[in-house]
Amino acid sequence: MKIFLDTADINEIKSLCKTGLIDGVTTNPSLILKSGKDFLDTIDKICKIIDGPVSAEVTQVDFDKMLKEAKILSSISEKVAVKVPLTEQGLNVCYELSKKNIMVNVTLCFSSSQAILVAKAGAKFISPFWGRLDDISQNGQILISEIIQIYKNYNFKTEVLVASIRNPQQVVESAKLGSDIVTIPTKVFNQLYKHPLTDSGLEI
Ligand code: G3P
């Protein structure tokens, strides 16, 4: 299973990429806003640091505008996976870009029926949101497991990129289910190292 970092913080990305444990980065407009940096410049900088896919999300919702924005984002680097929302317009953009071999990450997936359409539209990645489903008392884990099963049944090539990860246990469960990728915030990545018995075993 690949591990992506779910952050737009250049310093965090720089230092964690040195570990050799990070396979890609996902960003979204709110993460970049939080960093206080310029959007396109941030994506460009991240692409220069990481040797793997970098998801950059469109902000437009109409087909023409979204496609135009997507082309600007994908022109930054071949590493850019254009992130589009799971709407009818988003899937139309996904289909257009995928035909041109541009990587697309379809985001905000909350149902298996949506996931079927994403694979049919030729997306490189689908991002089902585990944490946000759990937040509203639904079951994110069931969604991930259904998508993996459906994609296996039909040998769909779209990679399952589990997003909205809140804790290390969701990372482990994603791995047990056979997810292709998890994207995790830096805080959760650092928690993956931790075990109290490891710490106490070091005490003299
Ligand atoms: O990359 C988007 C996704 O991971 C968001 O997570 O915690 O805002 O639901 P969260």
Characterise this structure:
The longest helix has 14 residues, at 140-153. The model has no long low-confidence stretch (mean pLDDT 96). The chain contains 11 helices and 8 strands. Helix 5 (88-99) links the parallel strand 4 (80-85) and strand 5. The protein has an 8-stranded parallel β-barrel with strand order 1-2-3-4-5-6-7-8, surrounded by 6 helices. The radius of gyration is 17 Å and the shape is globular. The chain has helices at residues 10-17, 29-35, 39-49, 63-74, 88-99, 112-120, 130-135, 140-153, 168-177, 186-191, 196-201; strands at 2-6, 24-26, 54-57, 80-85, 104-109, 125-128, 159-162, 181-184. It is α/β, with parallel strands linked by helices and 204 residues long. Helix 1 runs parallel beside helix 3 and helix 6 (112-120) runs parallel beside helix 8 (140-153). Bound molecules: SN-glycerol-3-phosphate.
Question: What is the strand arrangement across the widest sheet?
Answer: 1-2-3-4-5-6-7-8
Amino- and carboxy-terminal Cα gap: 36 Å
Tally of separate helices = 11
Give the structural class.
Answer: alpha/beta
* Run of helices and strands: EHEHHEHEHEHEHHEHEHH
Mean pLDDT across every amino acid position: 96
| Distinct ligand kinds | SN-glycerol-3-phosphate
Give a count of the beta strands, DSSP E runs of length 2 or more: 8
Taking pLDDT < 50 over at least 5 consecutive residues as the criterion, the unreliable ranges are none
The oligomeric state of the chains shown is: single chain
Q: What best-fitting shape do the alpha-carbon axes yield?
A: globular
- Rounded to an integer, what's the Rg over CA atoms? 17 Å
User: What is the makeup of the main sheet?
Assistant: 8 strands, parallel, barrel
**Strand residue content:** 15-25%
